[in-house]
Amino acid sequence: MVTNNGKKIYIEDLKAGYGAVEILKSIYLDILPNTVTALIGPSGCGKSTLIRCLNRMHETILEAYYSGKIVLDNVDIKKIDATVLRRRVGMVFQKPNPFPTMSIFENVASGLRINGVRDKTLIAEKVEDSLKKAALWDEVKDKLKQSGTSISGGQQQRLCIARALAVNPEVLLMDEPCSALDPISTAKIEELIHELRQHLTIVIVTHNLQQAGRVADFTLFLLMGEMIEFGPTREIFTNPKKRKTEEYITGRFG
What we know:
- The structure is a single chain.
- With 254 residues, the protein is an alpha/beta fold.
- It has a single domain (9-249), classed as Rossmann fold.
- The chain contains 10 helices and 10 strands.
- It has helices spanning 47-53, 82-88, 104-114, 120-133, 137-140, 153-165, 183-196, 209-215, 233-238, 243-249; strands spanning 9-18, 21-31, 36-40, 64-72, 75-76, 89-92, 171-175, 201-205, 218-223, 226-232.
- The strands form 2 sheets. Strands 6-7-8-3-9-10 form a 6-stranded mixed beta sheet, with helices on both faces.
- A hairpin with a 2-residue loop joins strand 9 and strand 10.
- Helix 4 (120-133) packs across helix 6.
- The radius of gyration is 18 Å and the shape is globular.
């Protein structure tokens, strides 16, 4: 679904933190449909807090709060049931987290079952389709009954992506999905991001500036919870408007 203002998500005056500690300071951001937006900045600048606010994962942490407005398809996410929201806005975490007691097949099927799908044929079709979308099917099609933790780290991360895709999300949040992976696995995830943007809106947190340059259409630079600069990735990396952005991009700090 595309909103009547052309934005999939927009954020107005977002402030967030934990207890008395403010992490994010008045963030304004438009996220367009079928684009990849990268969040960059040094450790502790608020990237993960921001991405977790987008599907209300932030509020599951003790003393967490946010104010302002986050709107998905013209509806404030506070008005959307959290379970429904997280089905629409899926998330892939930094460390692969397949369910260790479940097979590869059941890891992908779990979200479908939670959402009431009982048709075995439909579940099998969705599992295969999701594994194919995650570029994993050919590698695991003969191992579906094996544990989700029996495969390599890169494969586990793609399994987690397949699990998120199985419930047909509209947005996929990725919190440093390649930080624990080798270069070959990282390249596969990046190729996957390029393919998924045809069907999804993606927001990715990354410490790897080269990765942001390779995969993102738009980039947001955060520093100490403040929004320093946002724009098309090419402009951010080749002609930044703010001195702090240039200093970070060129490695003078961070």
